[in-house]
Design goal:
Elements (H helix, E strand, L loop, with lengths): L3 H27 L32 H14 L1 H4 L19 H13 L1 E3 L2 E4 L8 H13 L4
Length: 148
């Protein structure tokens, strides 16, 4: 007859391995948003803006831009900034951006260049990944969900 101690000791390595696998899986789920590839944004319905970066949103209240921006936000931004731009705490709630020149400046600075603190990337830069048209379309949609 085997003692209870021997059975517990015999299965201890298996329990440790199972726990390690469980913890590893949980850690990868918590970091999953960082491993997502940015999605292309079809801006063919929008007026081309050229190479020079604009300071003000040329697409404010443009129905096509708002539709495109809604989709682009959900594909590229919502994983951190939340569905409907309602942040769950991972990143800033973008509904609080002012709907004026200051808000345009803040938005374009951050989306183009990203944010890094103490060598850690808090937001990746999207310049060279999303076009200026896509960025302004996202801003046009954000203006529709803004809160004071």
């Amino acid at each position: 007859m085997k003692s209870k101690y021997n059975e517990e000791t015999r299965f201890q390595p298996l329990r440790k391995a199972a726990l390690a696998l469980l913890l590893a899986g949980s850690a990868s789920l918590a970091c999953a948003h960082g491993d997502v590839v940015p999605q292309a944004v079809d801006v063919s319905a929008l007026k081309p803006l050229g190479d020079a970066w604009l300071e003000r949103n040329p697409y404010s209240e443009d129905k096509d831009a708002i539709r495109i921006g809604d989709s682009a936000f959900n594909q590229n931004c919502a994983r951190c900034h939340g569905l409907g731009a309602v942040s769950g705490g991972i990143a800033p709630d973008l509904r609080s951006l002012p709907n004026d020149a200051e808000g345009d400046e803040i938005f374009m600075q951050r989306i183009r260049h990203g944010a890094t603190r103490d060598g850690r990337v808090y937001m990746p830069p999207f310049e060279g990944i999303l076009s200026q048209e896509a960025m302004w379309a996202i801003r046009a949609w954000l203006e529709t969900v803004a809160e004071e």
